[in-house]
Amino acid sequence: MSCLCITGADIREFGAKMSGPPLVPMIHMIEAAAKPVVAAIEGVALGGGLELALSCHYRIAHSKARLGLPEVTLGLLPGAGGTQRLPRLIGVPAALELITTGRHVTAAEALQLGIVDEVTDQNAVDAAVKFAQSVEGKSLDARRIGTFPCPRPPDLDAVFEKVMKEVRRSARGAIAPVTCVQAVHAAVTLPYAKGMERERELFSTLFTSGQARALQYYFFAQRAVSRWSTPSGARWDTSKPRPVRKAAVIGLGTMGRGISVSLAQAGFSVVAVETQEKQLLEAKQAVSGMLERDAKRRGAPLAHGNIKYSCSLKAAADVDLVIEAVFEDMALKKAIFRQLSAICKPGTFLCSNTSALDIDELASQTQSPELVVGMHFFAPAHVMKLLEVVYGPRSSPEAVATAMQMGKKIGKVSVAVGNCRGFVGNRMLKPYLEQAFFLLEEGATPEQVDQVLEEFGFPMGVFKVSDLSGLDVGWKVRKADGLVVPDSTGKSARIQGGRRYSPLGDLLCEQGRFGQKTGRGWYQYDKPGGRVAKSDPWLHRFLEEYRARHGLVARRIDQQEVLERCLYALINEGFQILQDGIAAGPEDIDVIYVLGYGWPRHRGGPMFFADMVGLDKVLDRLERYHQLHPDVPGLKPCSLLRKLAAGGCPPIHRWREVIQKPHSQL
Ligand SMILES: C[C@H](O)[C@H](C)C(=O)SCCNC(=O)CCNC(=O)[C@H](O)C(C)(C)COP(=O)([O-])OP(=O)([O-])OC[C@H]1O[C@@H](n2cnc3c(N)ncnc32)[C@H](O)[C@@H]1OP(=O)([O-])[O-]
C-alpha cells in the first residue's frame, strides 16, 4: 500500500544525475509483489507518479485528486511504462488522448475511465487500507497490468493513421506528441518487454532534443514571471497587494466585454460602464451570451449576478479598482482618467487596457499617479492567458502587486513590464511586421511569408493575423503617428526621416481592404467576415505594380531569409527591451510571446530560440542584413546582443547577471 502525491520526476534534475532509485525496476518489483499493493492517491499523481500507481494492483483516489501523464508538455513521453500500461488498462483511444495531450483528469473521470478502482471523500490512506483488507487472499494475476495483452482496436492501422494525422496537424512541428503515438503503437503491436524497450528508445530521443529543452525552459519561465521586479526596486516578495472585491470596467467594446466576463467569472463584483445607451444594451446581451456559453462549457454556475451595468462613470465611485477599456485614443483616455480620479474613492487603483499608449501620461491626469498601472489584456480578453501589467515611473509597488495578483485571480499569467510605446509584445511586433512588409516589396508574397512562419510553428502567419485583426487597426495608429504621408510625386513615401517605411498596408486600407471584415485584405475571403484565406490575384498584381512604380526589382527570397529577417528583427528588439530595463529578464519576453502572440511553445520563446541558434549566429546575420538594408534601424544589432555574443554567448539563465551589471565583463 503506498500513499502518492507525486508530481513525477524532478524536471530540474533532467540536466544532471537523477536522484532516487530508478523507477522502472521499482515498478516491476511492486507489480510482481505477492501481496496486494494499493495506491492511495491524494493531491496529484502525475507523470512518474501515475506510472508508479499503475504498477500497484489497485488504486484509490481522493475525490479532489488529479491524475495525468503530462510528459508531452515537457517534450517527453511517459518513460516508466506509462505508454505500455495505460492502453492496456483503459484501451488505446483513451490512452492516446491522455498521453498525446498531457491533460489532467479528475478522480471522477479516472474512475470512469478505469484508471482508479475507487474514489473517496475520506482519507485516501484509510480507504486504501480498508480496500487492501477487502482483497486479501484474492488472486493478483488479473491485476498486474504489464502482464495484460493490450486490447487491439479492430481497425488498428486506421485508428493509428487517423490519430497520427490529427496529432501531426495540432502539434505544428512538435515532435513529442508524434513520438507518444509511436510508443503506444508499440504497446499494441509488441510484447510488453519489447514495448518497454521501444518506449525507452523513444524516450531517449526526446530527452536530448532541443524541443524538450525548450519546453522545460518554458515550464519554469512561466513560473518565474510571478517573481517580478522593477528598475525602481519594487519586488514580488516585498510589495503587498491590496484586496480587490469590486471592480469597474469602463468601455464595453470587444475588450471591455471580455474583461468584464473574466472578472465576473472569477467572482469579482463588476460595474460595467458604457456611456452610450445603445452600446450598453448591446454589450449587456453580448456579455450574457458569453457568460452562458462559458458556464455551459465548463459546467460552472452562471456569473450574471456579478455584473451591474451603468451609463454613468459615477457608478464606479465605490469600486476598489477600475479598468479603462475605451477606444485607443489618448485624449479620450485622459479625459476619463481625470473624471475617474475625481469620482472614485481615495485609494482606488486606476488601470488602462491600452495596448501601447503612455501609462505615465494617463497617470498625470490623476490626483494619485502612484495608483495608475496598465493592465493590457489580449483579444479575446476572456480567453487569452496573457496580461501585461505595465508600471509607469510613478506606479507604486502596491499598485503593481495588486494588478499582478488580480491577473492571477482571473486565470491570467501576469507579466510585469515597463512603460514604453508598445510595452513588450507590441513593441517587438513592430520590427517583425516591418520586415514582413519589406519582404513583399522585395519579391515575396503573403502566402510565402505566412507559410514559412506557420512551418516554424506559428498557428497563423503574420498576414493571416493581419487580416484577422483588421488592417485598419494598424493604419489608424500609423496615421496618428504621422507615418501615412504621400511623397512629392503623390506616391506614398517609402523613406521617412532616413528610415525605410513600407506604405503597403496603408495603400490596401485606402482601397477598403481591411481583411476578413471586408472580405479582402492580404488574401481574399468568400464574403465579408469569411474565415478561409485564399490567394488573391489582385494582391499579386497590386504588388507587381507597386514594385514597378517604385523601381523595385522582385527577387527570389528563400525561406531562411524570410525566417531570419522576421524573427531576428523581433529578437533584436527583445534584447533592446532587456537593455532598456522594460523587461526584467528573457523569461518575461518568452512568456509574453508564447501566450500572447502564438510563438510555438516547443521553441521556448524568441529569446530562448536565440540562445538555441547561438547569439553569435544571430548577431552575424543581423549585421549582414543591416549592411544590405542600412535604412532599417531594426536590423542594427543592439549593444546587449553584441556584449553577450562578445562575452562567449552565456546560457540564457545567466543573461540577467549581464543586464543587471551593465558595465560587467562576462
Ligand atoms: C518518468 C516520467 O515518465 C517522466 C520523466 C516525468 O515524470 S516528467 C515530470 C512529469 N510531471 C509534471 O509534468 C508535473 C509538473 N508540475 C505541474 O504540472 C504543476 O507544478 C502541478 C504539480 C500541477 C502543481 O501546480 P501548481 O500551480 O499548484 O504549482 P506550480 O507553481 O506549478 O509548482 C510549484 C513549484 O513546484 C515546482 N515543480 C512542480 N512540479 C515540478 C517538477 N516535476 N519538477 C520540478 N519542479 C516542479 C514548480 O516549478 C514551482 O516551483 P517555484 O516556481 O515555486 O520555484
From TrEMBL:
<dbReference type="Pfam" id="PF00725">
    <property type="entry name" value="3HCDH"/>
</dbReference>
<keyword id="KW-0413">Isomerase</keyword>
<dbReference type="InterPro" id="IPR006180">
    <property type="entry name" value="3-OHacyl-CoA_DH_CS"/>
</dbReference>
<dbReference type="Pfam" id="PF02737">
    <property type="entry name" value="3HCDH_N"/>
</dbReference>
<comment type="similarity">
    <text>In the C-terminal section; belongs to the 3-hydroxyacyl-CoA dehydrogenase family.</text>
</comment>
<feature type="domain" description="3-hydroxyacyl-CoA dehydrogenase C-terminal">
    <location>
        <begin position="562"/>
        <end position="647"/>
    </location>
</feature>
<dbReference type="InterPro" id="IPR001753">
    <property type="entry name" value="Enoyl-CoA_hydra/iso"/>
</dbReference>
<protein>
    <recommendedName>
        <fullName>Peroxisomal bifunctional enzyme</fullName>
        <ecNumber>1.1.1.35</ecNumber>
        <ecNumber>4.2.1.17</ecNumber>
        <ecNumber>5.3.3.8</ecNumber>
    </recommendedName>
</protein>
<comment type="similarity">
    <text>Belongs to the enoyl-CoA hydratase/isomerase family.</text>
</comment>
<dbReference type="Pfam" id="PF00378">
    <property type="entry name" value="ECH_1"/>
</dbReference>
<keyword id="KW-0456">Lyase</keyword>
<keyword id="KW-0560">Oxidoreductase</keyword>
<dbReference type="InterPro" id="IPR036291">
    <property type="entry name" value="NAD(P)-bd_dom_sf"/>
</dbReference>
<dbReference type="GO" id="GO:0003857">
    <property type="term" value="F:(3S)-3-hydroxyacyl-CoA dehydrogenase (NAD+) activity"/>
</dbReference>
<comment type="subunit">
    <text>Monomer.</text>
</comment>
<keyword id="KW-0443">Lipid metabolism</keyword>
<keyword id="KW-0520">NAD</keyword>
<dbReference type="InterPro" id="IPR029045">
    <property type="entry name" value="ClpP/crotonase-like_dom_sf"/>
</dbReference>
<feature type="domain" description="3-hydroxyacyl-CoA dehydrogenase NAD binding">
    <location>
        <begin position="246"/>
        <end position="419"/>
    </location>
</feature>
<comment type="pathway">
    <text>Lipid metabolism; fatty acid beta-oxidation.</text>
</comment>
<keyword id="KW-0576">Peroxisome</keyword>
<dbReference type="GO" id="GO:0004165">
    <property type="term" value="F:delta(3)-delta(2)-enoyl-CoA isomerase activity"/>
</dbReference>
<dbReference type="GO" id="GO:0004300">
    <property type="term" value="F:enoyl-CoA hydratase activity"/>
</dbReference>
<dbReference type="GO" id="GO:0070403">
    <property type="term" value="F:NAD+ binding"/>
</dbReference>
<feature type="domain" description="3-hydroxyacyl-CoA dehydrogenase C-terminal">
    <location>
        <begin position="422"/>
        <end position="525"/>
    </location>
</feature>
<dbReference type="InterPro" id="IPR006108">
    <property type="entry name" value="3HC_DH_C"/>
</dbReference>
<dbReference type="GO" id="GO:0006635">
    <property type="term" value="P:fatty acid beta-oxidation"/>
</dbReference>
<dbReference type="InterPro" id="IPR008927">
    <property type="entry name" value="6-PGluconate_DH-like_C_sf"/>
</dbReference>
<dbReference type="InterPro" id="IPR018376">
    <property type="entry name" value="Enoyl-CoA_hyd/isom_CS"/>
</dbReference>
<keyword id="KW-0511">Multifunctional enzyme</keyword>
<dbReference type="GO" id="GO:0005777">
    <property type="term" value="C:peroxisome"/>
</dbReference>
<dbReference type="InterPro" id="IPR006176">
    <property type="entry name" value="3-OHacyl-CoA_DH_NAD-bd"/>
</dbReference>
<keyword id="KW-0276">Fatty acid metabolism</keyword>
